[in-house]
Amino acid sequence: MKKQQIIQLISTLLLFNPNNLIYESGMRKEAIKKNTRKSNLEYKIDKDEITTEKRINIALEEAALLKKDKTFQIIHSYYKNKNFIIPKYITPKFVRCLIEHESGNDKYAISKVGAKGLGQIMEATWYEVGERNYNKNAFIPEINIRATIKYLCLLDRKISNIPSNWKELADEKKLEIISAAYNGGLRKLKGVGWDVNKMKEETQKYFPYILKESKKFIPSAEIYQSAL
What we know:
mainly alpha, Lysozyme, 0% strand
């Protein structure tokens, strides 16, 4: 069986669009020379090509996770039936790992500062992303996960309009900055010039913890990669 036939077969089994299975990472071929002191992780240096074999492995692992993980099923449903724009690097894997770190997948979790549910959403944030009845709905997984994804997308839109080099950043670096804003606050991050290392220790360790969680889910994929 040819490689393309294998991809077509898997995409059919998973109800994926085969055109979407070939994931475009957006990594550029040319090196970014604006700041040679930055590490390769921060800027797009080479095109991140996912081999056919890796795409198949990611698709199979996502399918396996869908069968056993209720939280991932809910996350996945919002990506299949998009009612709002989700940047490609804010992947289902990233959202699942963030939720695991935020609440331990406990839908009734409440933080010391009053954040609730799987994504540990604060009341003001809840209404900012257009959700209703915080006290009643924050513990409903489907609604809390939707609010979590919408807030991540809102942070992405707000941040992408400010740092002049946002488009040149690698997808993983973008997720690090978005994660820092999610944990430590957008205003505070802006106040330190978008430098995560100048945030409080908890925020500095936040994204590394998410990366650690990522080994549990879809191990063949980087945090910013998906078969969707």
